[in-house]
Design a protein that fits this description.
The chain has 150 residues and is of the alpha/beta class. Helices cover 41% and strands 19% of the residues. A 5-stranded mixed sheet has the order 2-1-3-4-5. α4 links the parallel β3 and β4. α1 runs parallel beside α5 and α3 packs parallel to α4. The mean pLDDT is 97.
Length: 150
């Protein structure tokens, strides 16, 4: 199993915690030098906070962990392609690599709808790898929304 798959499994565990909390099941972990320095899952509904996406929660935890909002050299693993808000935070944090599982055809800002993370107009770019454990992440999301519709 490669490193990206191992860390994505941890992000999926975070997504399952979101599901247990009746949140949209998206999870994220931040890795730096082989160590998890931050993790999180969606908390929008329970916190009434539109910015409480898994990525934002994980980035905040990582910044607190190392005492710096610049996460130079860190990798972010997330189960769903980040939105524009999260892409902005990823760039501000100077994340080196984004690894995500499932694309987001409605809101995705890492290649699906837009590619904010590699824009030549900005002063930082982030490497992107998509599709890591995509079937598992997509199934988790589709089952969650299917149950909500019933």
């Amino acid at each position: 199993m490669d490193k990206d798959t191992s860390y994505m499994q941890l992000a999926l565990e975070q997504a399952r915690l979101a599901e247990q909390a009746d949140e949209v099941p998206v999870g994220a972990v931040v890795e730096l030098n082989g160590e998890i320095i931050g993790s999180g899952f969606n908390l929008n509904r329970s916190s009434n906070d539109p910015s409480a996406h898994a990525e934002i929660i994980a980035l905040r935890a990582a910044a607190q962990s190392i005492g710096n909002y610049r996460l130079n050299g860190a990798n972010l693993y997330v189960t769903l392609e980040p939105c524009v808000m999260c892409a902005g935070a990823i760039l501000h944090a100077r994340i080196k690599r984004l690894i995500y599982a499932a694309p987001d055809e409605r809101w995705g800002a890492a290649g699906s709808v837009a590619n904010v993370l590699q824009s030549p107009l900005l002063n930082h770019r982030c490497e992107i790898r998509s599709g890591v454990l995509e079937p598992q992440a997509a199934r988790l999301l589709s089952e969650f929304f299917s149950a909500k519709r019933e």
